Inverse folding.
């Protein structure tokens, strides 16, 4: 009986999900990210995703590891071929003043091939162009926050009240002042 239990536990661990004593499901990185493209929240509610950083994704939307495959501009990248819009970030377009500098910052901070963690925004999963809205973690730091701190972009005030991250300390420090109420 105990050998069967150990075998089953091993299979669960290998498959990427391990039930912890807290009742939370730990997300383990896999070669391919979770499938995305649906507006339905993931069944995984709290997902520790990094062994090297004390990080847990917020909310219930998608959260996974992936690799940067393309950098479009200062606030849009592709991860495993999926377009990601940095939530709460307003960077100039490439053709605008400061646009190439913002894009270059992203290339330097989170180059193509970098492994990143995506934490999709629960309150606005995708923008009107079909890009996933997310906080992107690269090198153990929020790309969203770093590009604003380095003054290559601004906080996107218009969306502070519409984002699950609008009340987070980093967003408030950078200028989000509208308090939002989370749906119950």
């Amino acid at each position: 009986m105990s050998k069967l239990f150990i075998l089953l536990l091993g299979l669960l661990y290998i498959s990427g999900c391990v039930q912890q004593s807290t009742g939370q499901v730990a997300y383990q990185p896999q070669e391919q990210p979770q499938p995305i493209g649906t507006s339905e929240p993931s069944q995984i509610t709290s997902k520790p995703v990094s062994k090297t950083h004390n990080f847990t994704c917020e909310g219930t939307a998608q959260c996974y590891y992936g690799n940067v495959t393309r950098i479009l501009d200062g606030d849009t990248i592709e991860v495993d071929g999926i377009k990601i819009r940095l939530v709460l970030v307003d960077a100039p377009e490439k053709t605008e003043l400061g646009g190439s500098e913002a894009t270059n910052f992203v290339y330097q901070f989170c180059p193509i091939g970098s492994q990143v963690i995506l934490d999709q925004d629960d309150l606005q999963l995708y923008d009107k162009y079909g890009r996933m809205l997310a906080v992107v973690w690269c090198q153990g730091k929020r790309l969203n926050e770093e590009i604003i701190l380095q003054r290559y972009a601004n906080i996107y005030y218009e969306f502070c009240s519409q984002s699950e991250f609008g009340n987070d300390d980093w967003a408030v420090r950078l200028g989000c002042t509208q308090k939002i109420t989370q749906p119950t």
About this structure: DSSP finds four helices and ten strands in the chain. Helices lie at 2-15, 99-109, 143-149, 169-173.
